[in-house]
Amino acid sequence: MEAAAVAAVLGFLLLAAAGGSAGDEAREAAAVRALLARLLGPGPAAAFSVSVERALAAESGLDTYRLSGGGAGARVRVLGSTGVAAAAGLHRYLRDFCGCHVAWSGSQLRLPEPLPAVQEELTEATPNRYRYYQNVCTHSYSFVWWDWARWEWELDWMALNGINLALAWSGQEAIWQRVYLALGLTQSEIDEYFTGPAFLAWGRMGNLHTWGGPLPRSWHLKQLYLQHRILDRMRSFGMIPVLPAFAGHVPKALTRVFPQVNVTQLGSWGHFNCSYSCSFLLAPEDPLFPIIGSLFLRELTKEFGTDHIYGADTFNEMQPPSSEPSYLAAATASVYQAMITVDPDAVWLLQGWLFQHQPQFWGPAQVRAVLGAVPRGRLLVLDLFAESQPMYVRTASFHGQPFIWCMLHNFGGNHGLFGALEAVNRGPAAARLFPNSTMAGTGMAPEGIGQNEVVYALMAELGWRKDPVADLEAWVTGFATRRYGVAHKGTEAAWRLLLRSVYNCSGEACSGHNRSPLVRRPSLRMVTTVWYNRSDVFEAWRLLLTAAPALAASPAFRYDLLDVTRQAAQELVSLHYGEVRTAYLNKELVPLLRAAGTLVYELLPALDTVLASDRRFLLGGWLEQARAAAISEAEARVYELNSRYQLTLWGPEGNILDYANKQLAGLVADYYTPRWELFVDMLVTSLVQGIPFQQHQFDENAFWLEQTFVFGTRRYPSQPQGDTVDLVKKLFLKYYPRLVAGSL
């Protein structure tokens, strides 16, 4: 593709989002000032002057901020070309001039007095149009039970991190309900079609239906309310909300109303049978396709307005009914045509995961058919897993369509220290320099949030950098200092060790999906190899503990101390499992009993106890969020069941078993530990009685235990118990000397 054509495509996207009145500028500035007051309090916020002027970015058209002022008696002046740019500039000042840190796990906002002066006026422009955030799955793995207070905090975090493009998909089922009723479906047919709240992401992508449902009327009302508030706040910052569009999936009941409709039933997904998957896909040439697509988008935009970017995924992790390029082009064109029928300015945001997930199906001709079916510049592709497996390289920069370089990082919202910081650091600049690159932005697209904050801090910063961070060791040292509010040799050394180990995954095999034996159904075939030296984790654990007397008052430090302790315990589980397996295979009963007893009756209970000391690691808090979203006890039970299923079995038969595993107090004690107890009991019985261990029999028995947890009604504490530092120290003193002595 010629450079002039590339410039034209990217220029279209800039023009599509340009403009805005003086009223918009005033509104965005007011929104950032309100954010500042929420973040710092009204008094400290008064020391800042925030304004928005589009003219600041007149030359490049790209988000720009300018910092000036400060010092004794002078206000810090923050000017942005948009509200998001102003918020990003504010965050830059707080981070680099004041040493502050804003984070999911707890912010550190101690301001120096007086506020430091910006000695030389600082102007910064982003190198690309977009900084994107979210994954369709994030709405189920992380956002599903949120109220407005939690959404408001997240939107503030997004603005401070410069996010200007994000999904806004709440409330769409209420709109679909109106459309389905208008088409002649009954309420019972609609209720049967929708999934439960914890599985809506996969209903929206056509992977599932029915599972975990139905959705009560109160759910629709609450989500409509939330969506209006979310959209209002996003637009007040100058963010672009991405609304959903019709991708072609329809309820089976549509065939009752329209017997002649041309639909194809797709194959199953995620080991679900057709009671819950095998969705019906409307043929692109069927007359109903544009009718349904335009009905939905017209009703949606009537309710919520529009910013002209829409998301739809027709073949996410599902093989199309035909590999013929003509079919794939027609299916793609029909989705886009339904969009522009209602909104002539529509731009389609497409998750590029489909090309990644089934490379054997998506050959060059198939990829080109999809990408070429939409006019250039009207399809914006998310290169979703670019830090590990960038698709822009394999597709000649998506054959001329603009794309966003995304870091996926996390699968299932799992806990577990993980990152590919070197690849993340280098990736965006390399994509920008790719021959005839159509890169239009950077993005963060995790399936779940609230973990590994260092990874997201780096990725957010890279959205405003033209070049990679020159020295990651120095950067991570500064991250630790800002996070805890003080420099400490112990924490700095610990973070350098973590950088070179858990955060230094490289290659296509890197995946932020925790497959530790701790969180998997046990077997004799589990893999325990890792890409790093476990001794680095144990030494980082020791170093953080040495800093506890000085930093124990920091919420972020206590979180990190516990998170690294959790990781160390996860490593210990793998080591003890190795001893258990070796003893069993060698038919050594006493070593088996010793290793199994330590694992099941000492290590796992100790891990559960230490997790219980922090509200951020409580199963009770997780389940209470779900229950709080309900308006009756019956609803609360359904929502809790949704949440328990998602964390464990995922489906009625363990269909995607432990995919969304978490390490939470209560879950370790009542879900993981009973499985391990059963496993070692059956191994011991096998040796004592001289009979083979039967994995299939264990799996059947384990499934009964897993179901027992899912259907349980025990209410777990939602408030922490015990002192984190004392409990960590106790665990450390018990196991670290054994590691040093080599007796483990």
UniProtKB/TrEMBL annotation:
Organism, as annotated? Neomonachus schauinslandi (Hawaiian monk seal)
- Which positions carry the signal peptide feature in this UniProt record? 1-22
Q: What class of enzyme is it?
A: hydrolase
Domain (Alpha-N-acetylglucosaminidase N-terminal) spans 30-117
GO molecular function, one example? alpha-N-acetylglucosaminidase activity
**Recorded family membership:** Belongs to the glycosyl hydrolase 89 family.
Q: What would be one Pfam family of this protein?
A: NAGLU
GO BP terms, alphabetized: system development
- Enumerate the spans annotated as Alpha-N-acetylglucosaminidase C-terminal domain: 475-734
Q: Which residues form the Alpha-N-acetylglucosaminidase tim-barrel domain?
A: 131-466
EC number in record: 3.2.1.50
- Which UniProt keyword terms apply here? Glycoprotein, Glycosidase, Hydrolase, Signal
Q: Which Gene3D superfamilies match?
A: Chitobiase/beta-hexosaminidase domain 2-like, Glycosidases, N-acetyl-b-d-glucoasminidase
Q: Write the protein's name.
A: Alpha-N-acetylglucosaminidase
Q: Which reaction does it catalyse?
A: Hydrolysis of terminal non-reducing N-acetyl-D-glucosamine residues in N-acetyl-alpha-D-glucosaminides
